[in-house]
Write the structure tokens for this entry.
Amino acid sequence: MNDRVWRILIDSFPKLVGYAVKVTVPLTVLSFALAMAISVAVAFIQYAKVKVLSGLCRFYIWIIRGTPLLVQLYLVFYGMPSIGIVLEAFPAAVIVLGFNEGAYMAESVRGALDSVNVGQVEAGYCVRMNYLQIMTHIVFPQAFRVAFPALSNSLISMVKSTSLAATITVMEMFRQAQVINGRVYESLALYTEVALIYLAICTILTFLQHWGEKKLARFGGNKA
């Protein structure tokens, strides 16, 4: 690379990192929190086998998993104003990313709930615990340990998915790289720099995932 390219990379790096901290990370955190709430609620409903609600949950999962995330972003941000529902770009991205990832995470949580021995649920009823107490104190803590790797993978995937928010004008890190590239025309260098920043963030999260898995294994009484 010549001196011009190095100067562009050095100048753009703090700007890209700044947008990663100000927009990409908050977008990921808020979307993941929404996805987590949705996934737990949907998984609990399916685990309880509430007929009508379980059907609605399966319908939601079917729709979300069967349509592309990019199309969902366009439907919410560009399509819904035609029926009078107008959202700012950032909240629209949070909602779409949260509902999208929530469908996948719900299946992970549901599978983890099913892995808990049903005898423990029956034992909870025997000591006069209600359904919510059994789920909160017996089933979910064990299921969380099982679901943790899959949920961590969903978080890492969501970090990368935030780049699609650039398509609905959210000024996150990738969008900022596009803006800079529009001035300097160094696509390969700039987008490689962005990729490396995403890689660094995901590497940190992967390290935290492994650390968390070891902690949960010890908590569960297994050797790490």
Remarks:
- The radius of gyration is 21 Å.
- The CA atoms of residues 174 and 195 lie 9 Å apart.
- The chain has a mean pLDDT of 92.
